[in-house]
Structure formats: C-alpha cells, structure tokens
Structure prediction request, 102 residues.
Amino acid sequence: MALWICPEQSVGPDPNRHVAGAEIIAKTSRERYFVVMSTIREIEDAIRKLPEGDLVELRAWFAEFDAEQWDRQFDRDVAEGRLDALVEEALRDAREGRCTDL
Prediction:
C-alpha cells in the first residue's frame, strides 16, 4: 500500500494527476490533504513531515476524533451490558459503606 498526502491540486507522485476516489483526511487553512491508501508506517512518516502549523491542527482534530470514538465505544459497551457488573459492584460498595464522597 502507498500513502500520498499532498495538496488537493496534486495527489500522488505525479503532480499533474488527480486520483479519483481520494478522500480528504485533513483540511488546513492553506491546503487539503488526501489519502489514497496507507500503512501505519507511511502515515507516521507523513505526519513527521508536516509543517508545525499543520501538526497543531492535526493534533486538535485527532484529539476530537479520538474522544468521539471513545464515547461511541463506551455507549456501545453500556448498551450491550458490558458495564453492568461494574455498576452493580459500585452500587453494592456504596450500600455497604465502602465509598466516600468526593
């Protein structure tokens, strides 16, 4: 697989080629970045090459993205009952006086 992150007007190794199906993965005030295919190592290398301002924007975007993913997983876990045993244990501890107010 190959990762191409470059300005919208030139996607891929050929600056005159616009790759159909490229997906915007980040948009900065100056450029839009596209990804066609990727591996973790290629993504890491591309991130290392980002200008400082773009890296700041990527960090902010990823923090929000990661929080949303965590929230979705938590909601799924609650809906599927994966936390029920922990809730019961906490309620039992509270009833039996093993908790203190914060």
